[in-house]
Amino acid sequence: MEKTRMASLALRDQRAFSAAQHAWDNLEPPAQPDSWIETEQGQSWLGESISALILGRDVVITARPRLVVSAADFITTFGESAADIYAYDPKNSLEWALARGLLFGGQEYQDLARQIAKKMLLKHQDAAEKAHAWLEDY
Fold it and tell me: Hey, how many other C-beta atoms are within 10 angstroms of the C-beta on 61?
């Protein structure tokens, strides 16, 4: 009876091991992001670069050949786009804030700044990916 019990336990363990091995052998590899910009590293670069532009700093994507998204180009593009918001503001929010000597940080302007910075940076995502791949080698 003891031998039968031991054989039954051994068979059960073998089946469990076989099932686990089968599951492991047929495991799909983890899904890879479609592009570098969707990775954690790409999103980190994008977020830091957006912040840099909004703070008035140029973003150097590559040193040679020199590829830069300039803060001057960003703020010019932002100013042109912000004029549309400004022109259609029925509450005259910006004028009231300026008249009262207040800092104005309307959410729509901040959202627009982030959208413009992101659009300008995404044009160069391939070059940024290559620059970061080179850095990872060291």
Answer: 22
- The tens digit of pLDDT for each residue in 55-94 reads 999 999 998 899 999 999 999 999 999 888 888 888 888 8
| Residue 49 near residue 59, CB atoms below 8 Å | yes
Instruction: Please report the DSSP string for the chain in residue order.
Output: -HHHHHHHHHHHHHHHHHHHHHHHHTPPPPPPPSSGGGSHHHHHHHHHHHHHHHTT--EEEETTTTEEE-HHHHHHHHHHHHHHHHHT-TT-HHHHHHHTT-----HHHHHHHHHHHHHHHHTTHHHHHHHHHHHHT-
Phi, psi of 59 (to 5 degrees): -110, 115
Gyration radius from the chain CA atoms: 28
pTM of this structure: 0.69
- CB within 8 A of 62, min separation 6: which ones? 127, 130, 131
- For residue 100, the cross-strand partners are none
